[in-house]
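Shipment paperwork, digital attachment
Item: protein structure file
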Amino acid sequence: MGRIFGKIKQKIQKLPGKMDQSQKAITFAEAGQAALVQEKLQTELESEVVRKLVVVGRESVFSEDIIDYALEMAERMSYEIVALNTAPLSCETFNFFSSSRKKICEDFKGLSKKNVRMFQEAAKKKEIPFTHVVKFSESYEGLKEIRNEIGGFEFVVSESEDQAAVSRPENGERAKSEIFVYSMM
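Attachment content:
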């Protein structure tokens, strides 16, 4: 239900721009330049961008908290989810062990693919478009690479980098990890 309201909200926000486009189209059509208008409208439709939310996992894992938060945000705001797993396994790290690097990278990809399955299935149930990406770099470098590959994205959701020891929860309370949301506007 929230996804429907998100789509309606998105369409309403685009309405003033579409009204302006319609007025321009009418003006050009009245001036006898309908072909120019048609070409311009086609270009604008093709350039309409899908809104993306990048979710950064902790290496090969996505916690339940971050999955729940990302799904709720994507559903509410009509975003496509790009799930990112990163491992800092650069070539320099394994210069002396080049055969080992390939095996480690394959193992990491397999583990990431296995661990993202629950996230992917939950997104599918909510009809949220979902893409999974694995990068062998630090998280911030992986985000730069994704921006170059898929274009812009509006938000990044990630967990705290440092997992400090959590004190024992009090009566009935649960230990919580922090979730960070960054706007990429």
